[in-house]
Automatic annotation (TrEMBL):
It comes from Azospirillum endophyticum. Residues 60-301 form the AB hydrolase-1 domain. It holds the Pfam family Abhydrolase_1. The keyword Protease does not apply. The keyword Signal applies. GO terms for molecular function: hydrolase activity. Keywords: Hydrolase, Signal. InterPro entries: AB_hydrolase_1, AB_hydrolase_fold, Epox_hydrolase-like. Residues 1-25 form the signal peptide. The lineage of its organism: Bacteria, Pseudomonadati, Pseudomonadota, Alphaproteobacteria, Rhodospirillales. This is Alpha/beta hydrolase.
Length: 325
């Protein structure tokens, strides 16, 4: 064997050792995150998928669906869950692959797939005519529920959503992590430490122009979002978002339930003028609320307004038109 071949073999061996060490370290970190943020709700198995959810309160049902790179803890950290539980039966669910819910590899997990699964979960939990609240990516899931399972939805609250296809650099960046073989390698080795390193900057971008809440470090389970399993779910949602918006945009006019759309002019994740503003003109029965001095996390910026609109939608009967504020 030549010196050159020997060097190559040594380099490959060292690389393999380094990747193996990263894989072990990431597995240990994932288990530590799960011990630090154990499941505090209940589990329900639907269609072979184990879902984690948290429920509280009594009254008209409200279902909270979190966005990408997140978990149901987002609703707790914002205080929305606790506020709603005073007057409603509120259910917050870890979407498939997020938090403590499973995401099997047997389907694409598009927003429509997730809506189908949630509709079955609603039936198992005896949830009917709920106000469904979706944030960011989950607005597509909420809309799919209203379109494909209309009996489950009484009203929609759509927070900082993405509704119409655009070019997304972030989708291209996460695409490798969503692929079967390369993605498995990346999410067990390089992706977790990279995701942890960029997390502070990502949070600043999400909350801008407001500061990141001081309590967020302790109240939101950020460490769960960088585990290898959730990184796959994050990446899959990232690459399915644009095609899903392209499919669903042709059906929005069929949504008959009332919808409250919330957006912030300062959103640095999604251009809300071309997204929420446009959706308001397409949905036949919607109101549009621009939250002042707000970015992507509008439910942190004005939780009282969000709760008030949820209450109005859950109480609404024959009268379906509510004036725009």
């Amino acid at each position: 064997m030549t010196d050159r071949h020997t060097t190559i073999v040594k380099s490959l061996g060292l690389t393999a050792l380094a990747l193996g060490g990263l894989a072990v370290a990431n597995t240990v970190a994932a288990r530590a995150a799960e011990r630090r943020y154990p499941p505090e709700g209940r589990f329900l198995t639907v269609d072979g998928v184990r879902l984690h959810y948290r429920e509280a309160g009594e009254g008209p049902p409200v279902v909270l669906l979190h966005g990408n790179v997140s978990a149901l803890g987002d609703w707790l950290a914002s205080g929305l869950f606790q506020r709603l539980a005073q007057t409603h039966r509120v259910i917050a669910c870890d979407r498939p692959g997020m938090g403590h819910s499973d995401r099997p590899r047997d389907r694409a997990w598009t927003p429509e797939d997730q809506a189908d699964l949630l509709a079955r979960a609603f039936a198992a939990l005896d949830i009917e005519n709920a106000v469904v609240v979706g944030h960011s990516y989950a607005t597509l899931v909420a809309l799919a529920l209203a379109l494909d399972h209309p009996r489950t939805v009484k009203g929609l609250v759509l927070l900082a959503g993405y509704y119409f296809p655009t070019k997304r650099v972030d989708a291209a960046l996460v695409a490798p992590v969503a692929t079967p073989v390369l993605g498995d390698l990346l999410r067990h080795t390089l992706s977790p430490p990279v995701s942890k390193a960029v997390m502070p900057a990502m949070l600043k971008t999400l909350f801008s122009p407001r500061p990141v809440p001081e309590h967020l470090t302790e109240s939101f389970p950020a460490a769960l979002t960088t585990r290898p399993g959730q990184l796959r779910a994050n990446a899959q949602d990232g690459v399915t978002m644009v095609p899903a918006a392209d499919r669903l945009q042709h059906r929005y006019a069929e949504v008959m339930v009332p919808a409250a759309i919330f957006a912030g002019h300062g959103d640095r994740i999604v251009g809300q003028e071309e997204q929420s503003g446009r959706l308001h003109h397409v949905l036949p029965n919607s109101t549009l609320h621009w939250v002042p001095d707000s970015g992507h996390m509008v439910h942190y910026a004005d939780p009282e307004l969000v709760v008030r609109r949820i209450g109005e939608l859950s109480a609404e009967k024959a009268k379906r038109q509510i004036a725009v504020r």
